[in-house]
Amino acid sequence: MTRITADTASALVRRGIPATVMYPAVDWWDFKCFAASRASGWSARKARAVLGFERFGASFRRRPWIGRARHTVDPRVRTQEYGITPSAQGWGPEEITIVHPPYLIPHLLRTLPHEGIKLIGALHMNLERAMASASPITRAWYRHWVARERLIDIPRYTTSLASKEAAERLGIPVHRVIHDGCVDLDLFRPAPRRNGAPLQVLLYCETNLQKGQGVGVEALTPLRATHPEIRLSSVGNVLPRHEKLFHRNYGYLHGESLVRAIQESDIFVYPSLYDGFPAPPLQAMACGTALVTTRVEGVEEYALHEANALLCLPGDSAQLRGQVIRLAQEPQLRQRLQAKAVEAARAFGLERGIGELLDFLQVVYEGWSTHGWGKERHDDRRAPASS
Prior knowledge:
The protein is an alpha/beta fold. The chain folds into two domains: 2-182 and 351-376, Rossmann fold, CATH 3.40.50; 200-348, Rossmann fold, CATH 3.40.50.2000. It has helices at residues 2-14, 29-40, 44-56, 66-70, 105-109, 127-130, 136-149, 161-169, 213-220, 223-226, 255-263, 279-286, 317-329, 331-345, 350-371; strands at 20-24, 78-82, 96-99, 118-123, 152-153, 156-158, 176-177, 200-205, 231-236, 248-249, 267-270, 290-294, 310-312, 375-376. Helix 5 links the parallel strand 3 (96-99) and strand 4 (118-123). Helix 2 crosses helix 3 (44-56), helix 9 crosses helix 13 (317-329) and helix 12 (279-286) packs across helix 14.
């Protein structure tokens, strides 16, 4: 989400459209209050009051937006930190606010529409899969805010067709699919392959369970013994207990450093369990690196099995490992997929995603009053139970 926000805000200001990134002093504040309420038996109001006192008391210190440290952000992008809930202070009445993640919308509805500020909800995942999470508290959390989302009448977009269909099955109307995870094709580009160098496999790692780091590690661990000629690397936030598996841990990279790490790899592994429109696999394809990934939302809009990538079922470490071994042992297949990947990525450049977003912003701006958006209904409907 931070990368998408950085890319989108920078692209907007380059077009002369002012952009402000509002970021929280505490990430996922509502979820933490929800979890505390469930664990302690407190009311939601008490949980927010207690945690708020602990976090926002005398020790409160402001922090810069992490996006500027992790990504290349146009200096004209403004940033504004907020404590518990964003306010309308300092905003113009004609501004449009894109809300990531949507659980903030009920708070914002109390103030922003009254100031003339228009809200847009952005859904970046398949909510049905999220509601089937292995974590009981996570399942309860998504059921909680999906129930709220069903009652809120604002324009929304998702980043993939599968996510749109899932939201609509849950009773959440979605008005557009916008690929805001597209990549900068001037930055992510192919490079000549190294002759005679050991085969390099790069695993994308995040601490978020949905990104499947554990599955990826389980898939690659046997390769240290069975295929010692393969060099294993990680990029992103690898967990400390997994570091010893890899010959090299790049850590969190962005810009040219990330591009070089991908270009130096022959195979890129993305083991996500559920997603929206993930950019890392598309970045690898744009660099001409053979892709092994899972059949998650968004991926199948640009990655086609056997045509430009190898896909497997989410959570299946044995299948993931088999696809990596297959690419390692079949250089002609690997080279064919690398070439086709570059061709496929060209259709998903950053300009496409920004163009889709600007078209939708214009629709929202012109149709806000006509549609009567910006309201929350109050009834006793419930979100469907998760499977």
